[in-house]
Design a protein that fits this description.
This protein is an all-alpha fold and about 625 residues long. Among the domains are: about 100 residues, Serine Threonine Protein Phosphatase 5, Tetratricopeptide repeat (Alpha Horseshoe), CATH 1.25.40; about 180 residues, no CATH class; about 90 residues, no CATH class. Helix content is about 65%, strand content about 0%. A two-stranded antiparallel ribbon has the order 1-2. Strands 3-4 form a two-stranded antiparallel sheet. Helix 5 runs antiparallel to helix 6 and helix 9 crosses helix 10. The longest helix has about 30 residues. About 10% of the residues have low confidence.
Length: about 625
């Protein structure tokens, strides 16, 4: 009845104590009820401590010392906690020391002792001694919780690959005895299997580079078993993604979060003590209490297994399996909060998507980079490049509704950062970047929304009126819109477009412009004439492209010869030249941008459609035959 009264609330505590008085805790005679009802004394004392009645709890705890049956370590911890609450620091110290002396792996009593020595006694040396012991216990207990799932896949693989006997006395990384013989033995065997299979992976790795299909299959089997073991450990995948990896005390987090609280408290005390003692140790110096390995294998090595497994499964034609593995790596708490590791994982992700020509995955990865590195020019260029490398141009995700909305939100976010009030300081145009505006303009352009695209191209033009990409885009928008049924004044739109094309020509013909850029300009102009049906101008433009191609190849050949004589390396740029060079260390290949195949094909089509098959054959033989 007393216990139920306690649970009914504070106003019933007096009645509960009246019921408890039947036990008569102050009786010290030989016939005291403590000798017959020791379990009831303990139950009542625990209940009173739980509701915060420490003085009354201490009255019922004290007689239990006369018995041996109920005076266990938990009892002494409870007595010590009551003494702390009642301000009896010396008595609390004695009880905590009793627990520490009788249980060398009791973490909580050492943390409480350190707190007492630091706060009540000012004995920092003693406090540091016990806090170091607590941190060591926390690490060792964490290691024993690494794996509990009953799965014999690892054992089967270890047997299949004919593991040799482990040398007598060799250590098993990542295991500690737990006091339970069977459990400790199973954990050691599992760790031993994982370490053996990991060594087998490294042994097979050189043969993978040679393309041995049997070795690749063996490597994938082993890696799959290891990754399944890793991914089924819930410590790496907390319910809340914001929770960082704090070690292998995650099991105790799910059991009231007691373990993690103690470990965190121990680390905080340790840092305070070091600062108070003038040791100069910072919080980072205690970071080694958080493990950096799993079954003795560093986390970086585990990440390498994830990435290589993904690349190999993609090459085997199973990109979905690769994406699943990469998702497991990306969401693991040990890498989720690390920008360099996350960037590496997602770089591997779009590499796999490129190999599989998976446009949807590429678009998703490009968006991830734009969200993580917002307003960084290279991320927008990456999005454009990845969208250009895969997918069907006629139904590309580049101009899909989700991507358009996403990019528009990016522009709105950028506009929100600009000063809007008259008294706000203005920004120099050199500080602004047109990449996002031009990219969104091209998304609209590729969806045949030419007028809306002009809005963003003109914003970019206001910031950079000498940008050839912006000038070309504006010119093409006007010209293409003139061909639509809704165009009101085709002649005006064409003239507007040609005026910007002339600006584009002027920028590309500046002194010092490379021949490749001049060739690009001539090709684009020829394409415009071709699309407008002005074939005589288009033929002249395409011919200029072919003439420039000869000069470009001669210039490239001369540069290659000069580099070969100097013994220097050849830089790689865009293009299609395929003259290989060798030096003492490597084979270098110089690529040069050249539009001659495209121009020759366009000329061939014009001549064939005009009935001049002889000229078309001459162009084909000279420029298009490999």
């Amino acid at each position: 009845m007393g216990l139920f009264r306690l649970k009914m609330g504070e106003k019933h505590h007096e009645e509960a104590l009246h019921h408890f008085e039947w036990l008569n805790p102050d009786d010290t005679s030989e016939n005291a009820r403590i000798f017959d009802y020791g379990d009831l004394f303990r139950e009542v004392a625990d209940a009173l401590q739980k509701v915060g009645l420490f003085q009354e709890a201490f009255r019922f705890y004290s007689p239990i010392q006369q018995t041996t049956e109920h005076a266990d370590l938990g009892y002494f911890m409870a007595m010590a906690n009551c003494c702390v609450a009642l301000g009896k620091a010396e008595d609390a110290e004695a009880y905590y020391l009793t627990v520490a002396e009788n249980d060398p792996r009791h973490m909580e009593c050492r943390v409480r002792l350190a707190t007492l020595y630091e706060g009540d006694f000012g004995m920092n040396d003693e406090a540091l001694k016990y806090i170091n012991e607590a941190l060591l216990i926390g690490r060792q207990e964490g290691r024993t919780r690494r794996r509990k799932r009953d799965d014999n896949r690892l054992e089967q693989l270890a047997i299949e690959f004919q593991r040799g006997p482990r040398p007598v006395g060799s250590p098993l990384a990542g295991t500690e005895p737990t006091g339970n013989g069977d459990r400790s033995k199973n954990a050691q065997n599992r760790t031993d299997d994982i370490r053996f299979l990991f060594d087998k992976l490294k042994e097979l790795h050189p043969f993978i580079k040679k393309g041995d299909s049997d070795v690749v299959e063996d490597w994938l089997d082993i890696a799959d078993a290891l990754l399944r073991d890793f991914r089924t450990n819930r410590i790496f995948y907390p319910m809340a993604r914001t929770m960082e990896f704090q070690g292998y005390t995650g099991d105790s987090q799910r059991k009231g979060k007691k373990g993690r609280t103690l470990l965190d408290e121990a680390q905080e005390i340790a840092v305070r003590l070091q600062k108070a003692m003038g040791d100069g140790t910072t919080e980072e110096d205690w970071s080694d209490t958080i493990p950096t390995d799993y079954h003795g294998i560093p986390f970086d090595e585990w990440l390498d297994i994830f990435l290589e497994y993904s690349l190999l499964t993609t090459k085997q034609g199973d990109p979905e399996e690769a994406y699943d593995a990469l998702d497991g790596a990306a969401t693991a708490s040990i890498w989720f909060h690390s920008k360099p590791k996350s960037r590496l994982i997602h770089t591997c992700w779009f590499t796999c998507a490129l190999h599989a020509q998976d446009e949807e995955a590429l678009a998703g990865e490009a968006r991830w980079f734009m969200k993580e590195y917002q307003f960084v020019t290279d991320t927008y260029r990456l999005f454009a490049m990845l969208s250009n490398l895969a997918g069907d141009p006629h139904k590309s995700l580049f101009h899909s509704s989700p991507n358009m909305k996403f990019m528009l939100r990016q522009i709105k976010a950028m506009d929100f950062t600009l000063p809007g009030m008259p008294q706000s300081p203005s920004l120099d145009t050199e500080e602004l970047d047109v990449a996002l505006l031009v990219l969104y303009g091209h998304i609209l352009y590729s969806g045949n929304s030419f007028y809306p695209a002009l809005n963003y191209f003109f914003r970019a033009y206001a910031l950079d009126d000498q940008n050839p990409a912006v000038l070309l885009s504006i010119g093409l928008c006007f010209i293409h819109h003139s061909m639509k049924r809704q165009a009101e004044n085709r002649h005006y739109l064409i003239m507007q477009g040609l005026s910007f094309m002339d600006e584009y020509r002027r920028v590309r013909e500046k002194a010092g412009t490379p021949l490749q850029e001049k060739q690009e300009m001539e090709f684009n102009f020829a394409r415009v004439w071709h699309s407008l049906g002005l074939l005589h101008l288009a033929v002249n433009g395409y011919q200029k492209v072919l003439d420039l191609s000869k000069r470009i190849q001669e210039e490239n050949q001369q540069l290659v010869e000069n580099h070969a004589e100097d013994g220097g390396d050849i830089d790689t740029v865009m293009g299609e030249a395929d003259t290989p060079l060798r030096n003492s260390t490597q084979e270098s290949r110089r690529f040069v941008e050249d539009f001659s195949p495209e121009a020759a094909y366009a000329l061939q089509c014009i001549h064939v459609l005009s009935g001049d098959s002889k000229t078309a054959k001459g162009v084909t033989d000279q420029w298009l035959v490999v």
